[in-house]
Amino acid sequence: MISPTAMLLLTLGITMVLIGALVRAPEITEARGGKIMAFVALFLLPTLGTLWAFSVHIERSKETSFCLSCHVMQPYGRSLMVDDKSWIPASHYENHRVPREEACFTCHTTYTMYGDIRAKMTGLHHIWVEYVEGAKPPLRLYEPYNNRECLHCHAGARSFEEEATHSAMMDDLKNNSMSCLTSGCHDTIHNIEHLKDAKMWSPPKS
Amino acid sequence: MSPTRGNLGHRLRISGTLLILGLLTEIISLFWNHPLSFIAFAGIGVACTGLGILVFLWSLVSLPPSEAPVSRKGED
Q1: Is any Cβ of chain B less than 8 angstroms from the Cβ of A127?
Q2: A116, A182, B56, B74: most buried by Cβ count inside 10 Å?
């Protein structure tokens, strides 16, 4: 079956052919059929095609490979391959607790009504920083990591809810007064300063 | 082709050229999953496509009244 991206490329290609015909012979717009063709080729199809392509680009920007294509993010990508389950991002990535192809986005979006839009706007700012201002490591989050992002998946999970420490402090975790990451429980995150000493995991070749 | 038709044809050519440039950039950007391809898409592709559409719409609304579709007898 033809993929959506191939369909989009086909649509854009057909649009270009129609526009090419109009550019070569604009007098065809004198006929009624030519007017309709001009409206479709010069307005309708480019508008729809551009919106469709925008949507494809936005979806692609969620991909792990997209985030890691910036040089400054590469150590963070390597930290996903550490062979140590106390490294939170690595244990999530390696054990499929987050989808590998959208690992960064899954943990670094905000699970609120406009979280996706906010993440996209932040992403645009990151592009600006990477190519205009120049990113200066070490990178910092804009605001402390919110437990909401952890609880989006873990809340309601039996192994999480029945664990004695979690259940004892559930209210504090839910109202964010105790951080999952910085309260001393799960504090080994990307930890890129110690990456060179870490043992790395290689996924088996399929 | 009358002079005004000539103007319309000229504007359609400008619009079409901008649209082809914009759509071509959009197509190329889809083959590369990188932040720079998004910049090219938004900065060149969307800009040229948007401008091409605006030129087309402008060419429609700036047609002189004599070139507007003639109403059929008895409709006025």
Answers
A1: yes
A2: B56
Domain that holds residue A39: 4-60
**Cis amide prior to A138 (ω within 30 degrees):** yes
Query: pLDDT tens across A80-123, in order?
Result: 999 999 999 999 999 999 999 999 999 998 888 888 888 888 88
Q: Note whether residue B35 is domain-resident.
A: yes
DSSP codes joined into one string, B23-72: HHHHHHHTT--SHHHHHHIIIIIIHHHHHHHHHHHHHHHTS-GGGSPPPP
Q: What is the pTM of this model?
A: 0.82
Residues B26, A47: C-beta atoms closer than 8 Å: no
Kindly state whether residue A48 falls inside one of the protein's structural domains: yes
- Cβ neighbours for A142, distance < 8 A, ≥ 6 positions apart: A122
- Rounded Cα–Cα distance for residues B55 and A77 (Å): 45
CB of A27 less than 8 A from some CB of B? yes
Q: Is residue A89 part of a domain?
A: no
Instruction: Assess if residue A204 is contained within a domain.
Output: no
Domain around B29: 22-62
> Over 60: is that where the pLDDT of B70 sits?
no
Domain count, chain A: 2
Q: What is the distance between the alpha carbons of residues A38 and A53, in angstroms, rounded to a whole number? A: 21
- Asked if residue A157 is part of any domain, the answer here is yes
Rounded CA-CA distance A3/A60 in Å is 15
Cβ distance A149 to A107 under 8 Å?
A: yes
Question: Of B8, B35, B53, which is closest to A42 when you measure between CB atoms?
Answer: B53
Count of domains observed in chain B: 1
